[in-house]
Design a protein that fits this description.
Elements lengths: L9 H8 L1 E3 H7 L1 H7 L13 E3 L2 E4 L8 E5 L2 E5 L12 E4 L7 H14 L2 E4 L8 H14 L11 H9 L12 H9 L3 H11 L7 H15 L6 H11 L5 E3 L24 H7 L7 E5 L2 E3 L12 H9 L12 E3 L1 E2 H11 L3 E5 L9 E9 L14 H6 L1 E8 L16 H14 L3 E5 L7 E3 L3
Parallel strand pairs: 3-6, 3-8, 6-7, 9-13, 12-14, 13-16
Antiparallel strand pairs: 1-2, 4-5, 10-11, 14-15, 16-17
Helix pairs in contact: 4-9, 5-6, 5-8, 7-9
The chain binds guanosine-5'-diphosphate, 6-O-phosphoryl inosine monophosphate and magnesium ion (MG).
Length: 449
Amino acid sequence: MGGQWGDEGKGKIVDKYVEMPNRVQMKTLIRSVLYHAPGTSRFVDTSKNFTQVEMMYRHHGGDNAGHTVQVEKNTYKLHCLPSGIVRRGMKCCVGPYVVCNLELMGEELALADSCGSEVFLDPRAPVILPIHRLIDRGREQAKGKDAIGTTQRGIGPAYEDLISRRSLTLGDLVSPDRIRTCLLNGHYYEERAVIARFLDQNPPSVDDTVDYCFTRGKLLVPHLADTRRMLYTYASHSNIPVLFEGAHGVMLDLLHGAPPYITSSLCSAGSVATSYGVMPQHVVTVVKAYTTRVGAGPFPTELTDALGDHLREKGHEFGTTTGRPRRCGWLDLVAVAYAMRMGGGTHIALTKLDVLTGLDEIKICTGYRMPSGEILPPFATLTREILETATPIYKSFRSWHRDISNCHSLNELPRTVWTLLDFIQEHLLHPITLIGVGPERNQVIWVGH
Ligand code: GDP
Ligand code: IMO
Ligand code: MG
């Protein structure tokens, strides 16, 4: 899961976890191993150095996500399907809580096919209709300067229809009649069209929408499968862990983020349990070595000066989905600790450490001073008011000037990096398992806790 406001590098880390060294699993999963069957190793096959994950799930969000995987010179930007689609032989499932952009899914299915992976789509997953995008856009326009800065992908309106129990689902795409019946049921589409027109948008007709859904759906229908059954069937005969790929970041979570500057899905590890009944035991929280945010909303450690521009340029911080420049700032451990607490994080993958190379000084926010002069007490819920009024308390660290982007072990890293890593782990009380030192798949260091 994402430990900040999104774009932490989840795509890359998920891709890397497909080949998890056994020594990492041995140490990190020891608790869960004991839990399951004392004395036996449920997850670890010690005869190999690596466990190759075979199955992966995307379990929430929609194409507001933009996950990047760079393999040598090829860069893949994925929005709907799990990042595993770029790996041959991988089984990639999309769960019932993912809202689906039919066009993009079709494109990503073609990519999966060309990469030799298999895709399974849950029939219960809700469809994002063109009218959802119009309503999203219309609302943002109507809000003017108070706009949330959504991706305008129709995410909020699509989830509203899931909650009000009337979504068109992937399973409905099998025939035009079924699509039409769903859209007309209880005046569903007409009601949505009234809202779209009220927001100065021009919604397509029911006929056009049926045609859009059926035509695009033809590519998707052959991939429909009971993804919940698949998980249990697989787990009942395999020792290999299954990966769940979170989207967004817990600071954008529907319940834990600061409304209205949030997304419309549950972004914590708990949402795996909501969809699949299993609470993941090894919850890798992806944390960027600094912070970024796209769209509006409070951001206590934001740097609006030349340093912020430097991080944006050096870290290529432009939205994967919308191309918008990302707001940049120092690493905020108050926010990360909160995200890990609410999200159920157990481990940390620290990305983009290379971007901090060469700075005069590195700052990390370790506390918030509130307008009253008091320091925010431990375990406080980070409300909008707190995030808007807090003054960050920073600790300064020395930087390093040697290029670290080719380092493959901790020993190769400058000692000043070690100091930083130690501090982060000790502050968050969770171990770092993986460090990103560049965008490419192999630019990582496994820590091996
Ligand atoms: P996600 O939404 O969390 O998957 O993240 P994005 O893909 O939207 O944005 C992360 C960006 O950082 C992508 O361009 C990645 O290729 C890049 N990236 C990921 N890890 C690293 C890293 O360790 N170093 C550098 N320099 N880039 C990274
Ligand atoms: P990944 O998975 C960064 C932000 C939007 C906006 C708010 C609501 O790539 O980390 P929405 O379209 O979801 O209704 O927009 O949430 N947002 C993201 N920001 N990365 C994302 O996904 C995001 N998904 C949503 O910018 O502020
Ligand atoms: Mg992204």
